[in-house]
Amino acid sequence: MKNKNLKVAFFLPTLNIGGIERVFITYANSLSKFCDVEFALCKKEGVLLKELSSDVNVYNFGNVRLANSFYYLRKYLKQNTPDCVITGGDYPNMVLILASLILKHRPKIIISQHNYFNIEVKHLGLWARLSKIWTRMVYPYSHKIIAVSDGIYKYLTDDLKQNPAKIIKIPNPINVEEINEKSKEKCEFDLPDKYIVFIGRLGIVKNIYMLLDSYEKARLNECYLVIVGDGFDMIPLQKYAMKLLKSKYIIFTGATHNPLPVLRNAKSLVLPSFSEAFPTILLEAICLGVPVVATPTEGAKEILNDVPNAYISNSFTDSDEFAKLLEQAYSQSKMELSSYLKAYDEKVACASLISSCI
């Protein structure tokens, strides 16, 4: 039975494809079974909208940019009076906290930290350094901060100087049954029989150029490299791939709302990132028994520790080493690994969210 006295809202710019968006949809769909749940969006757009349960309401600010959403968010908080509002990402976190200040009926503000101060932010220079100072100043005005991994917990306490008493560690949740069901859906792409796959946003932090160099060197018996995702680096990466000898074996599919059929049929998943806090795609690969090759990010090391068909490189830049790991994973068979996922079950995560935050 639903608790009609409890209203939980999630605030995000859009529901375009992204890790935070997928995590919040999982939370929202699960929570909607026993309380009122609403998504407050700057723009009601994104292929992930179709993933929302019909029990989750969507409130549209009217197609505004995140940078211009302060007034609309504050108005929403006053009129809709949610008991708790949850968001994630540095800038949505700060906007929500500031918009909620000095409200007569201020809801509990739950922010979540999903990333480090990484190279994608560092290249912004002075603005990035100032934004880091802002997070240190603004975050204390939240009620709780969700750290999605041990590494993020340490980052929040040591680097951002946040009060440990406010921080609760809740790993990104997954629904094993749902992952298996969605992985069996018809793939929207025509793909070869043998391929390794990268799935994610195509930005500098994902280190795709090193992956392309490694794939060029790896002996994989005409196994294709499929790159699923979109982003700022899409066109430069395609141009770079065209210069390689194996260019005809490299496929850029663009984004998809359901990459699981692609993952299910892959020989291995590759994640060559410079920085990952807690990549859900690794949990999905474990769920489907797909071998994994990753660089030594904090997230990869935390998730893949002791997983038998996972390979973690020693370097972020050594394409020769990464190529050898690609070869090892290619020769590895899929295996049943569900026992490694018990700590990440969505019921456990939602229970932690409710008891510790809401």
Give a structural overview.
Strand 12 (292-294), helix 12 (298-304) and strand 13 (310-312) form a beta-alpha-beta unit. 37% of the residues lie in helices and 18% in strands. The chain has a 7-stranded parallel β-sheet, with helices on both faces. A 6-stranded parallel β-sheet has the order 10-9-8-11-12-13, with helices on both faces. Helix 8 crosses helix 13. The chain has helices at residues 19-31, 70-80, 90-100, 119-122, 126-138, 150-159, 176-183, 208-217, 234-242, 260-264, 280-288, 298-304, 319-330, 346-356, and strands spanning 3-12, 35-41, 56-60, 84-88, 108-113, 144-147, 167-169, 195-199, 224-228, 250-254, 268-271, 292-294, 310-312. The model has no long low-confidence stretch (mean pLDDT 91). The protein is globular, with a radius of gyration of 20 Å. It has 14 helices and 13 strands. The chain has 2 domains: 3-169, Rossmann fold (3-Layer(aba) Sandwich); 176-341, Rossmann fold, CATH 3.40.50.2000. With 358 residues, the protein is α/β, with parallel strands linked by helices.
